[in-house]
Amino acid sequence: MIKIAPSILAADVLHMGDEIARMEAAGADWLHVDIMDAHFVPNLSFSPALCKAIDAKHDIWQDVHLMMDNPGQYLDAFIDAGADGVTIHAEIPGDVAGMLQHIRDCGKLAGLSVKPGTPVDAITDLLPLCDLVLVMTVEPGFGGQKFMADMIDKVRQLRQMGYQGYIMADGGVCRENLPQLIEAGLDAAVMGTALYKAENPAEYIEECRGIWEKIRG
């Protein structure tokens, strides 16, 4: 069954706790927590303190996405704060393989993300260390962007390469483009504006699961 992960970038930051509880009540599987350093991407957001607060008051699985130049310096901080899965970017400098292995060694799900301009062929050697590959379907850094339909091919290519872990898409994902993503091999979806602005988030999530069942069930 597809995993639905609301992105807190689309939440009302003045009512974050209520927004997270609303997504939990709607039946979300994971909570996607974007961490941005204003260097790797031109925006700044959140810290391990938020993950710790979420972990203390909510029971939802935390999918933490580190859009950072130097995530290796912060892996332990986010893991200790309550991250259940940690995704880093393929485009960063340093020992990406070592970081992925460290995340796994800590008992967490290890994820690797690729920006729109990065071909999936570039991460072939890293796939055995990945429990999740996050395909960015917008340029990372800001919410509310238009979905890049040509990124669907990356999902398909990953499956054709034999990758068996989770494939997630992030950026403008909604029930309208979800069928094409699922047909290509997607099994986890980050949803921001589409889900937080939905009149009934629970019904929206059920519709998305219904799409999965129709295509892959």
Commentary on this structure:
- The structure is a single chain.
- The chain has helices spanning 16-26, 48-57, 75-81, 96-105, 152-160, 178-184, 193-196, 201-216; strands at 3-6, 30-37, 44-45, 61-67, 85-89, 109-114, 132-136, 166-170, 188-191.
- It has 217 residues and is of the alpha/beta class.
- A nine-stranded mixed sheet has the order 1-9-8-7-6-5-4-2-3.
- It is globular.
- The mean pLDDT is 95.
In short, what is this structure?
With 217 residues, the protein is an alpha/beta fold. The protein has helices spanning 16-26, 48-57, 75-81, 96-105, 152-160, 178-184, 193-196, 201-216, and strands at 3-6, 30-37, 44-45, 61-67, 85-89, 109-114, 132-136, 166-170, 188-191. It has a nine-stranded mixed sheet with strand order 1-9-8-7-6-5-4-2-3.
